[in-house]
Structures are given as structure tokens and as C-alpha cells.
């Protein structure tokens, strides 16, 4: 409480409780009451100003995967440029599928994977929790590293492959669109009362792009992000591009070569156009499906079913065989 408020409040309370008539007819008391109200209003205004300043400062802090929800106008932009977008918000094609597939082998492509799920695991017990719930050894990883891991049923049947980034205060899991809701629900169900773990679906609060092809490293170098080139799969770092936060990781959902870029919807259009200006060819979901098959990337409901366990699905790189030893 401010000095003005602390001084005025007891005076007014005393006058009201002991002499209502005196308060109504005493000019001095009325002036005191008005002055206190004016000062209180001024103090409230100052407090609001302080809160607004705090919000501005918080928004400028390092990116920690909690950007505010912002209207997603990126799809409007690509639609205006000729892309075909489904009712579910998935870019199906840029009418260049053959060119894009060729660029994957000989140049560089960029894919909008924003419809893929993104799950944020936070809390002090997040590492041990994910270590117990998936096939990878999370306990051997540290901040800035990453891995692939598999979510399985109680009978070890495959649910989905997840691409994981270890961050300072959270772990980001990128999963297939079809499984995001079920995995989020499953993880929340397995949190015990004493576990310090929080699971959030942040898909709508973020956008995800994948950069692939033999020339993807050149694009990164041109964007002053070359320090990630040559780093192990899953390595991730935070950057500030034109005042907007972006997290970049080595590798992506389709390939260990290339990069993934996570940003807010507000920055998505700018990041996308920057990648195109560097020669990246846009690739839609129709071409992505062909690419997924030729790259041997299994998908839920297709190659990943209850008929096969993780080893039968050939997901050796996503399994730790020495967990618990």
C-alpha cells in the first residue's frame, strides 16, 4: 500500500464510523476524502503501468516455449501465393511436387509441419518421467541435446515416434498429428500425485518448419546459424531473429540431415519467406507422403500399429538397450 493510501484510509474510516453527518458537512473532511480518492486512483494507474512494463520485460526474455496465442495468418499468406490448403489447415501442395522432391535430393526444401503435434513436458521430474514412459534414455541427455524416442503401449506395441529437444526448463516432444491428443492424455494419466510434471499441448501456440536437402547447411550458414552445422542429431539452440524468438534443432522428423525451426505464429510468415529467399523449395503434404515412404519413415495407423513392437518396426535408433543397467 502506498503512503497516500495508508494515511487517507484510517482518517476516512474514523470519520465515517464516528460521525456521518460531520463527514457530509465538513469541508475539510470532504477535501481529505477527495484527495485520498485522487491519490488512490493515481496509485492504481501507476500500478497498472508497472504491470504493463513487467509484461513487456517478460516478453523479451529468452524463448521458453510459452509464446502467447496469436492469430495464425501464415496459411492465408501461402494460400494467396497459390498453395492448396485443406480444411484442417494442412498445406497439401504448392503445385510443384516433382520439383520439391528433386530439391530434397539435390538442393533444399522447406516443409510446414505446423499440423504435427508439439507437447511440452515441464517440472522437476520431467526427465525421469519421460525416461520411464518412452524407449530412449533421457537421463543421459542434457540441455541443448535431443533424441528420437518411441511411445509404446503396455504390451510394447508402437504408438508413435517422437522427436525430442531437451531445454532449460522443459522437454519438447514433436509427434504425429494423429497421436498428439492421445499421447497428451496418456502422459497426464500416468502422472502420480507426487510427481512434479506438467504436460501441455502447445501445438496451436507454435509453428514448425523442416529444412532438408544437401544444401540446407548452406542456408543455415547464410542466416548466421552455421554454429549448428555438423552438430549431433537433436542439438537445439535458441535464437533471436529480427526481434522474434526462434528455436532451431539439428535434424527433423523426416531426416537426420537438415534442421527444424520452431517459432511463434507471429513470426512464421517472416521465417518462411526468409527460407524461400535463400533458395528453399516449398514442399506440401502430398509430396511429403511420397518422401516419407521412400525415406522409410513409418507413420501411426499405417506402418506403426498394434501388430508390431518397436524392434519389429525397425526403430533401433530410437531405443536404449541399456536403460536401467
From TrEMBL:
The record's InterPro entries line, in alphabetical order, gives: GcvT/YgfZ/DmdA, GCVT_N, TrmE/GcvT-like
Naming one, the record's GO cellular component terms include: mitochondrion
Q: Where is the GCVT N-terminal domain?
A: 101-323
> What stretches pass through the bilayer?
none
**Name of the protein in its database record:** GCVT N-terminal domain-containing protein
Source organism: Gossypium raimondii
Lineage of the native species? Eukaryota, Viridiplantae, Streptophyta, Embryophyta, Tracheophyta
